[in-house]
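Handout, page 2. Input:
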Amino acid sequence: MTMFTPINENKKTFYNKVVEHIRELIDTGKLQPGDKLPPERELAEMMKVSRPTIREALKLLSAMGYLNIQHGNGVFVAQYIERIDNLASLLFMQSDKVSELFEVRKTLETQTAAWAAVRGKAILLRQIARKTKEVYEQIMEKNNFSTQEERDEFLSISDQEFHLSVAEAAGNEVVLRVMVNLIDLLKASRMQSMKIPGRVEQSLREHMLIADALVEHNSESARQLMLNHLNGVEQDLLRELNRHKTTRKKNK
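Output:
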């Protein structure tokens, strides 16, 4: 299958890039429910990555509901991939669901940031810091994007990569798997928060502060800065949701 294109592992920090590529094939219909993927070895050759990278990516896609791994028979595109996106939409219809989701995030991601500061390999932590600065500079340069859609897509992917990179640096595979699934539930809130004036720039500055704490191996600072960041995003989202509710009531 020529649809599986090479992944540059030198530029892609972890196997989530393989996950994104296969998910895109499924989301765009190039891979249909019931389709069988090539064997692990062939996928690794086609995508120019290691077999362990492919193996972990397939496990994550299975946990997310995109793939069905049948030991002895192969890996198939699952029939029920719509569940997660539907759940994401349902969660963000009500402000109390936003609060519940952020309760989970603040419990999980603050500890993850603290672990990353202590356990993270120096090279990965420096990569996170360098990437956050690059993203901030690209966003602040107004002429880097030809359309608002292009800018929003870049921001969405960059935000996802930041939080997953912190989880990767924490060195806990269970946390990483939970975060991968949680990222899907954050899709609606991420897109909504990007529409709030000033929120994008503020989030990027907060990402840089967190990254600096990681590089300095300051676990308590990383924990507190992550909490401040999540509190800020949550408060802005709830304020925006309440504003929309008030507007709808006035227009009725």
